[in-house]
Design goal:
Strand order of the largest sheet: 4-3-2-1-10-11
Largest sheet: 6 strands, mixed
CATH topology: Purple Acid Phosphatase, chain A, domain 2
Shape: globular
Structural class: alpha/beta
Length: 161
């Protein structure tokens, strides 16, 4: 299974559309959004995808965002989510709560821990956990999303124009 990881879209709907085209072309079947969506119209762009969202620090209209998520049959994990797919344990959050990010990172409970917030694409190993920020579609040196192939665990950073 191939998954797309996206974060910090901040209403950049044209870039979201470009990112979704890239991920579709790469064969992604499921997407995780690591927060800072900000507007319900952005949520609706993800219609037709198997979607998992968490909130970021810029997601102030949570009731409105939650209603949009319900409309597209997305899963709303609130501030933190976790999945197990093909025996691989995934955790995801926005990353603005540094203590929560740290605690999840050092817990050893996840094979992958995804977060956003910094707008900087980065991957590092922390014990058994690969901690990955897919970058951002707003206020970043370059705009990017991540493609994860399971169960191989290979990742590919995709630049979005």
């Amino acid at each position: 299974m191939k998954m797309g990881i996206i974060s910090d879209t901040h209403d950049r709907d044209d870039r979201v559309i470009g990112a979704l085209e890239l991920l579709r072309d790469e064969g992604a079947e499921m997407l995780i959004h690591c927060g800072d969506i900000t507007q319900p119209q952005t949520v609706r762009l993800f219609a037709g995808w198997q979607m998992h969202f968490v909130y970021g620090n810029c997601d102030g209209q949570r009731e409105v965002l939650a209603a949009a998520m319900d409309q597209i049959n997305a899963t709303n994990h609130q501030r933190y989510g976790h999945l197990e797919i093909e025996g691989i344990k995934l955790g995801f959050l926005h990353g603005d709560d540094e203590q929560m990010l740290h605690d999840l990172e050092v817990s050893g409970a996840y094979d992958f821990l995804f977060h956003g917030h910094t707008h900087v694409a980065r991957e590092r190993l922390s014990g058994p956990t690969r901690v990955i920020n897919p970058g951002a579609l707003h206020r970043a040196a370059f705009h990017s999303v991540l493609l994860l192939d399971l169960p191989s665990g290979t990742t590919k950073l995709l630049r979005v124009k």
